[in-house]
Amino acid sequence: MAAENLPLVILTHSLPAEWLTKLEGKCRTVVGPWDATHFDASLEPYLAEAEGLFCLLTIKVDEELLKRAPKLRVVSNMAVGYDNIDVAACTARRIPVGNTPGVLTAATADLTMALLLAAARQIPQASKDAREGRWITWSPAGWLGADLEGTTLGIVGMGKIGRAVAQRAKGFGMKLLYTDIPLPPEIESELGAKRVELPELLRESDFVTLHVPLTPETRGMIGEEQLRMMKPHAILVNTARGPVVQTAALLKALQQNWIGGAALDVTDPEPLPPDHPLYAQPNCLIVPHIGSATRNTRRRMAELACENLLAGLEGRHLPNCVNPEVYAEA
Ligand code: DGY
Predict the structure, then answer these.
(1) Domain 105-286: which topology?
(2) CB-CB contact of 302 with 19 (8 Å)
(3) Lining residues, ligand 1, CB within 6 Å
(4) pTM of the predicted model as reported, rounded to 2 decimal places
(5) In the chain, where the domains are located
(6) C-alpha 273 to ligand 1 mean position (Å)
(7) pLDDT tens across 100-114, in order?
């Protein structure tokens, strides 16, 4: 097909070219800036003609945007989470929405353990002290942290990532509690994981890690009441979505030592403004949404997003479709 007849695709952000080779010769692309925090104005004129949209989790795909893109046939999100997309509005237009599950499970579980260990062992503070000249001698009572072995990890949400965290935590000798629909008994006993309700998990755990998607039900699910249930030394880890935790309540919990600390890969708002009081909390470790940030994982996410996009353009079922009901007979 002549290049000018290929379908037009909007890529909301520029990405490394070697991640996008699958698109070559299959579509025309217009590309937004790499650091766009919202749908970039430079892409507006292309919405009327675009047949595909390849977007990141920072881009809101809502009714307003969809109205301006009447020819859109596929939305491909380069993320497993898709809370940035109004899926119902896409479904109403019979637009399939793709995501990238599976390929980021290990990387996100690894980062969860890295945050948990860093917070438990005060690694950011110890590293800062060493660099800044406060490492005077081997200090028997300095930089004391928490053990993992024999302590309890509460996993809120036992999907793919929750389970991958469970496997890793088991290797560290941790006891496991979880909330979610029950796992098959053989997997529960292989992991040594016990299913409980959220209040029991919060009361019994030394570490709590969140792995639920952001939905109306999970938005704000960790607030003042829940934080007050946690042990005073407990550490909260969030690699899921920022709004699952109520930021003001978390700040209060850290300031008033209701809990021992927090380690956050995600925040609400995201990013936090640089002067946000959470940054001033010594018991709060914050990293910039890097759960899936390994070279292989990000490349696989982009490739999967390309596969979803091309399937949509070619009228095939998306390999990973979050609204398969679009394929039901009209
Ligand atoms: C996702 O894919 O939803 C992650 O948050 C990206 O790291």
Answers:
(1) Rossmann fold (3.40.50)
(2) yes
(3) 57, 79-81, 104, 291-292
(4) 0.97
(5) 3-103+295-329, 105-286
(6) 21
(7) 999 999 999 999 999
